[in-house]
Amino acid sequence: MKYVVLIHSNMQPWGHPTIDFTEVGRAIPADERAAMGKEFDELLAELSASGELVTGLALDAPSTARTYRWEGKRPVSTDGPYAESKEQLAGFFVLDCATRDRAEELAAKFAGPGDVIELRPEMEF
């Protein structure tokens, strides 16, 4: 079963890794942030080796987004993010896990300072 790990963050300025661009992340000493980064890289290597990591992307700033909505009889586009919100989608990873428990175990490891992690299963149809 595939699961998407959505990373929402309020980064100022926008950048990746998110820990370096959130207020709470910048408050962590640089050596601790580096150790956390190394631990995350090791997690990604482990998931890649096990075949559980399908893909992942860091997303550009919400201000670079283009939104499309259906109005009347045609799509209309506007600049900017989909929703006005303090936290925006910063990136995602797709995992292929045998069980929901395993996906939840892994999703918790993606939570970083200043981030909100959402785990959502793939919709099968």
TrEMBL record:
InterPro entries (UniProt xref): Dimeric_a/b-barrel (IPR011008), YCII (IPR005545)
Span of domain YCII-related: 24-109
Family label: Belongs to the YciI family.
Annotated SUPFAM superfamilies: Dimeric alpha+beta barrel
Matches recorded under Gene3D superfamilies: Dimeric alpha+beta barrel (3.30.70.1060)
Name this polypeptide is given: YCII-related domain-containing protein
